[in-house]
C-alpha cells in the first residue's frame, strides 16, 4: 500500500516540477513551486528525515515561496519580453539531450549504489553520549560538525549584507521593503493579531525541543520570522531601518557567540570548537540561544530585501 | 523497489527537468526557480542515500541529514540574494533581460550562464 502511495507522490512531484518549468506565467509557476515544496516534505518523511522535513516545509517551501511570489508579481511586466526571447528548437533539443544524459547518468548511479550502504550512524550513536543531547541531528550540527553550522550562520549574514548592499544610495540605512498599508480593521490585520501568539509559542517550542527531538533553531527561527513578517505585512509594525545599532548588534551576536565558544574550546579543550568535558550541552545551548534571534532577524530581513525607503517614511 | 531507490530515481529526473528549465527559460526569475528544482533534486538524492545508511536505531544516517539542513538554508540565502540582484536590475533598467543586444544569440548567451 505504502509503495503505491510513494509512487503516486513521486509522480505528483515530477508533474509539478515539469509545471514549474513550462508554466506560461511566472506566478503560476511559483504557486506550483510552493505545492512542490510541501510535497517534498512528505518525501522527507518517507525517507525518515523528520528534521529535514521540518526545514523543507519552513524554508524550502514557505520562505522561498513567499520570496518568489512577491518577486514574480513585481516582475510581471517583463514576462512578455522574455517569452519573445525563447531559444530556438535546436537549443531546446540540445538542452533536452543534455538533461536526459544527466538524469540517465544519475539514475545509473542510484541503481549501482554500494551494498551495504556506508553509514556513520553507528559512530554517531557511539559518541552521542558525550554531547548530552538526545537528537543525533543536533549532535552532528552543533558538536561533530559544528564548523559547518558556524560557517552557515556566517554565510547567512554575508548574504544579508549582499542583499542590503543592493540598496540605492538615497535609501541606504533606511527601511527595507515597501510600506504596507493594509486595512487596520481588515482580515489580515485580525490574523496578524491572533496568530503571532500561537506562532511564537510554537516556534520557541520547536527551538526548545530541538536538543532531544526533531526540531531546532532553524525551523523555530523560520516560524518566528514568519510571524514577524505577518505583523509587518498587516501594517501593524514597520520594518526597522537597517542603520539601527541594536539591529546590527543582534545580527552579529549569534556568530560572535559561536566563535567565542570555539575559541574557548581552543583554550580549554585543545581544539577550535571542541567542548570541555561535561560542559558540552551547556555550550550547545548557549550557541543555540545566541543564534536564535540572529537567525530570526536574518531570515525575516532577507525576505524584505534591500532598503528602498528613507528612515522617516 | 525501496523508498530510497524510488525517490533516488525521482531525484535524478528532477535534476534533469530543472536543468532543462534553467537552460531554455529566458526569464531570470524562472531560471532561479529552475535552479531551485535542481537543488531540491540534489537534496532528495542525498536524502535517499542518507536513508540507505539507516542503522543503529536511526531511520537514516544523521550526518548527511544534518548537512542537508545546512544545505537547504544556504540554498535559501543564495536564492534571496539572486532575487535581490534581479529586483535591483529591474529597478535600474526597467527590464531583466540577460541577453546582449543581438537577439539571435539570446539562446546561446543565456544557456552559457
Give a written overview of the molecule.
The complex is a heterodimer of chains A (313) and B (113). Chain A is built from twelve helices and two strands, in the order ααααααααβααααβ. The longest helix of chain A has 25 residues, at 50-74. Chain A has helices at residues 2-22, 26-46, 50-74, 79-84, 89-111, 121-131, 136-144, 146-164, 187-209, 217-233, 245-268, 280-304; strands at residues 175-176, 307-309. Chain A has two domains: 1-76, no CATH class; 134-313, no CATH class. With 313 residues, chain A is mostly helical. With 113 residues, chain B is mainly alpha-helical. Chain B has a single domain, classed as Helix Hairpins. Helix content of chain B is 76%, strand content 0%. The relative contact order of chain B is 0.13. The chains are: A mainly alpha (313), B mainly alpha (113). At the A-B interface, helix 1, helix 2, helix 3, helix 4 and helix 5 of A face helix 1, helix 2, helix 3 and helix 4 of B.
**Regions of chain A with pLDDT < 50 over 5+ consecutive residues?**
none
**What's the average pLDDT of chain A?**
87
Q: Write down the CATH class of chain B.
A: Mainly Alpha
User: How far from one another are the termini of chain B?
Assistant: 37 Å
Class per helix and strand makeup of chain A: mainly alpha
The residue-averaged pLDDT of chain B reads 84
Low-confidence stretches of chain B: 102-113
Name given to the CATH architecture of chain B: Orthogonal Bundle
| Strand content bin of chain B | under 5%
The helix content of chain A is: over 70%
Q: From the 3D structure, determine the CATH topology of chain B.
A: Helix Hairpins
Briefly summarize what is shown.
Chain A is mostly helical and 313 residues long. Chain A has helices at 2-22, 26-46, 50-74, 79-84, 89-111, 121-131, 136-144, 146-164, 187-209, 217-233, 245-268, 280-304, and strands spanning 175-176, 307-309. Chain A folds into 2 domains: 1-76, no CATH class; 134-313, no CATH class.
Amino acid at each position: 500500500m505504502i509503495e503505491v502511495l510513494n509512487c503516486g507522490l513521486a509522480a505528483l512531484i515530477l508533474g509539478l516540477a515539469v509545471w514549474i518549468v513550462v508554466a506560461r506565467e511566472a506566478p503560476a509557476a511559483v504557486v506550483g513551486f510552493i505545492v512542490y515544496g510541501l510535497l517534498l516534505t512528505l518525501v522527507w518523511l518517507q525517507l525518515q528525515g523528520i528534521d529535514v522535513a521540518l526545514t523543507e516545509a519552513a524554508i524550502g517551501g514557505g520562505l522561498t515561496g513567499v520570496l518568489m511570489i512577491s518577486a514574480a508579481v513585481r516582475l510581471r511586466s517583463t514576462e512578455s519580453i522574455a517569452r519573445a526571447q525563447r531559444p530556438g528548437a535546436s537549443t531546446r533539443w540540445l538542452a533536452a539531450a543534455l538533461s536526459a544524459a544527466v538524469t540517465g547518468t544519475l539514475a545509473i548511479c542510484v541503481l549501482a549504489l554500494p551494498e551495504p550502504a556506508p553509514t556513520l550512524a553507528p559512530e554517531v550513536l557511539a559518541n552521542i553520549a558525550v554531547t548530552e543531547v538526545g537528537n543525533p541531528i543536533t549532535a552532528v550540527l552543533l558538536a561533530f560538525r559544528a564548523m559547518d553550522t558556524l560557517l552557515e550562520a556566517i554565510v547567512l549574514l554575508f548574504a544579508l549584507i549582499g542583499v542590503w548592499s543592493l540598496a540605492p544610495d538615497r535609501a541606504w540605512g533606511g527601511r527595507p521593503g515597501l510600506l504596507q498599508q493594509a486595512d487596520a480593521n481588515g482580515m489580515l490585520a485580525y490574523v496578524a493579531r491572533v496568530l503571532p501568539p500561537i506562532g511564537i509559542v510554537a516556534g520557541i517550542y520547536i527551538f526548545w525541543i530541538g536538543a532531544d527531538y526533531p526540531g531546532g533553531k532553524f525551523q523555530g527561527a523560520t516560524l518566528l520570522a514568519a510571524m514577524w513578517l505577518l505583523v509587518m505585512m498587516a501594517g501593524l509594525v514597520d520594518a526597522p531601518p537597517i542603520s539601527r545599532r541594536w539591529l546590527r548588534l543582534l545580527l552579529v551576536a549569534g556568530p560572535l557567540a559561536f566563535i567565542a565558544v570555539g575559541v574557548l574550546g581552543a583554550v580549554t579543550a585543545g581544539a577550535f570548537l571542541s567542548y570541555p568535558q561535561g560542559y558540552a550541552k551547556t555550550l550547545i545551548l548557549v550557541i543555540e540561544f545566541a543564534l536564535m534571534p540572529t537567525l530570526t532577524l536574518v531570515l525575516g530581513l532577507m525576505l524584505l530585501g534591500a532598503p528602498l525607503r528613507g528612515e522617516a517614511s | 523497489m525501496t523508498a530510497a531507490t524510488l525517490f533516488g530515481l525521482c531525484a535524478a529526473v528532477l535534476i534533469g527537468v530543472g536543468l532543462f528549465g534553467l537552460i531554455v527559460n529566458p526569464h531570470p526569475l524562472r531560471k532561479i526557480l529552475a535552479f531551485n528544482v535542481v537543488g531540491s533534486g540534489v537534496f532528495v538524492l542525498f536524502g535517499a542515500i542518507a536513508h540507505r545508511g539507516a542503522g543503529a536505531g536511526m531511520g537514516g544516517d544523521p550526518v548527511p541529514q544534518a548537512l542537508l539542513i545546512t544545505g537547504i538554508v544556504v540554498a535559501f540565502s543564495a536564492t534571496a540574494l539572486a532575487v535581490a540582484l534581479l529586483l535591483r536590475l529591474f529597478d535600474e533598467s526597467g527590464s531583466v533581460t540577460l541577453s546582449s543586444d543581438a537577439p539571435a544569440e539570446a539562446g546561446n548567451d543565456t544557456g552559457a550562464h
